[in-house]
Specification:
two-stranded antiparallel ribbon, mainly alpha, 3 domains, 55% helix
Length: 446
């Protein structure tokens, strides 16, 4: 099948082609303009800031405790808040004119994954985390994004950093609680160096010691005090003395120890290669070609992790535009692409429910590794059947107002157009044709 670079730009780098777009774009200039000139938009709506959310949570607690009635009310409010954030995010993805930017937002949000499963406070914070820790840094320095995620309460709570106390700290000598290595381990394994990044268990412990004292202000009894703050450094929790990370000694420096450690991790060649591998896997192929990875890693390292330069470098990969490899759409990508192909202006509860049924709700991965990014993660029979159900539901609600021919001709790369057209002609009505197109094997790939 001969590739159309315009459809590759719209579907692979964007979030799905819309009728009428195909003949209006020149792939390279359209994508590069988004990186060079587009601001990273925020979802529409009156969505609360992280600081406001932390202050709300703190206000519900009396001396760090919460009544059962208050817990129930908070769970209800948290679900409502999460629903508003999810719809706002989906609506932006469906309507944006800068879909490459939005795809990058989603890539980085999944790379620095937090999950609203289980921890009630993360439910409140998940949308604000993406809006404040990810979006402002998509075209900035990688190190700044790592630092922003490290200091956000969603990450601090999700990976138990708020539970970590230096064994020799003032608090540690009086408390049964001790060092928690969860965040330090994931910072190295999932966010920077990668599992084969050249560190050992002692490096994890030393990094965890350097990060002690990084917490959220005013909401955890016995661990934090004072005014509610999205990020607080508590000296009484911090492990005193020097530490050694990746064979480099760091003098005692309080909160700056964590900053220095993050800076060191972000400058490692293994970090450049780990990030490059994930980017090439996302945009090109499940099994990234080593030369593509080398190129992106080189740009990452040469520019000090300049993510604007790295994003532009992805557009230099011929394999992304002309290679035979294709990427299988995740459920989120499928739902967004379907809405764009059908010209919708907003999503609804049915889209949210569909993502739940397909095991891909926003900001709720089953582990800190985030959601999978390969065909093996999403192409199971049950998920494909649920995609067909969703396509049928969408087509039914449109009531024949969309031309199936335009959807076929302008949004899809089809392996056998003649066979698909013949199959469409056999359908009884416009509605069934649309459902068949969106559920077809060709639409599942980008």
């Amino acid at each position: 099948m001969q590739t159309d670079p315009r459809l590759r730009a719209l579907n692979r780098f964007g979030l799905g082609a819309r009728p009428g777009e195909l003949n209006r774009i020149e792939p390279q200039s359209w994508l590069r303009a988004q990186v060079q000139t587009s601001a990273v938009r925020q979802p529409a709506g009156s969505l609360p800031s992280t600081r406001t959310i932390v202050e709300e949570i703190a206000a519900t607690r009396q001396n760090g405790k919460m009544s059962q009635e208050m817990r129930s009310a908070m769970r209800k409010q948290g679900r409502e808040r999460m629903g508003e954030e999810v719809l706002a995010s989906l609506n932006l993805a469906i309507t944006t004119d800068a879909p490459f930017v939005e795809r990058l937002v989603r890539f980085w949000s999944n790379h620095f994954a937090i999950s609203a499963q289980g921890e009630q406070m993360v439910v409140y914070l998940a949308g604000a985390y993406e809006r404040e820790a990810i979006r402002p840094h998509v075209f900035g320095r990688f190190e700044d994004m790592v630092l922003a995620t490290a200091m956000h309460p969603a990450m601090l709570i999700y990976l138990d950093q708020t539970r970590s106390i230096g064994p020799k700290s003032r608090a540690g000598r009086k408390s049964e609680r001790g060092l928690n290595e969860n965040y330090a381990r994931e910072l190295m394994e999932l966010h920077t160096l990668g599992v084969d990044g050249g560190y050992i268990q002692d490096d994890v412990r030393q990094l965890a010691l350097m990060l002690t004292g990084w917490t959220v202000g005013g909401i955890f009894r016995g661990r934090t005090g004072g005014q509610p703050k999205p990020f607080a450094f508590m000296e009484q929790l911090h492990e005193p003395g020097s530490k050694v990370l990746l064979n480099r000694r760091f003098a005692q420096a309080g909160v700056n120890e964590g900053r220095q450690a993050i800076s060191l991790l972000c400058r490692q060649p293994s970090t450049a290669r780990f990030i490059a591998t994930k980017l090439v896997r996302h945009f090109v192929a499940d099994q990234p070609h080593p030369l593509d990875v080398d190129y992106i890693a080189g740009v990452f390292q040469d520019t000090g992790g300049d993510l604007r330069a790295v994003s532009l470098a992805l557009l230099d990969l011929d394999s992304a535009f002309y290679g035979t490899e294709r990427k299988f759409r995740s459920p989120q990508e499928f739902v967004i692409a379907a809405a764009r192909a059908l010209g919708l202006k907003q999503s609804g509860r049915s889209a949210v429910q569909a993502l739940q049924s397909m095991r891909h709700p926003l900001w709720s991965p089953p582990s800190p590794a985030g959601y999978g990014d390969m065909v093996v993660d999403w192409a199971d029979p049950d998920s494909l059947l649920r995609r067909a159900d969703f396509a049928t539901l969408m087509a039914k609600r449109l009531r024949g107002s969309i031309d199936p021919g335009a959807v076929l001709a302008e949004t899809m790369q089809v392996a056998n157009p003649t066979a698909l057209v013949r199959l469409l002609e056999q359908q009884p009505n416009n509605q069934t044709q649309l459902a068949l197109l969106i559920a077809s094997p060709d639409f599942q790939w980008r």
